[in-house]
Specification:
276 residues; alpha+beta; 9 helices; 9 strands; 44% helix; 17% strand; globular
Length: 276
Amino acid sequence: MHASEGVRAVAVARSVAASLGLPADEAAVLHDSNKLTLRLLPADTLARVAPADDQVAEFEVGLARRLTEAGCPVGALDPRVEPRGYERDGFVVTLWRYYAPAAREVTPAAFAAALARLHAGMRALDVPAPRYTERVERALRFLADHARTPGLAPADRALLQETLRSTAEWIAARGAPEQLLHGEPHPGNVLATAQGPLFIDWETCCRGPAEFDLAHAPEEVGAHYPGVDVELLRRCRLLVLAVITVWRWDREDLFPDGRRMGEEWLARIRAAAGRE
């Protein structure tokens, strides 16, 4: 969030928590992106704050409740308050259980086992969600809009467009089964807790092959996931890399050090295409 928005978001989160009987004298920022994630003390609750015009609180809360009830490895909502989004002063706040970090990091094998459990639980749910291809289409729209991605050189713009189109076509032709997915189960969305790895953040939920989720995880995780299609996973990694590279070239991108990362990822895509 922009600094001015962030100050207001913190104030709103503290106010909402206090009004629900959860004292929030202190707020520690744990993550700052399009949403603000805060640890509120002394209540020790986790608050996620999003602009009211850019939030999917009802969907996230509902899905998290169903996954928790199904025994999936997910971060739970705070049981002390009604599970819903609380709108105030242009923001929506959701409150979640805070988990103290475990002493050890999540191993690739534990990550893969937890993701497989999550996928099994998600296959049993009938939840409407966009296909992963909508993310590809959005990235292509950004590339077509030169004013939105003004820093891209013509050759790099063409490379990203070609990579997105050809890789998405290959994945579709593979015909792998599709299911409900987390959408972005990268390490930032996995908590290392005493209970084991727990997945959080459901705003990017989509439908697609399991390998699309695996493509967001560290490479070592794929070797431990049961029944993985190795070539499909390789193509999904390339597709995900191309999509997130486009986001780093968006003129409105606020990701820390985003442009440097965008340059590095472009170099990897050029290498994959044999252009370096």
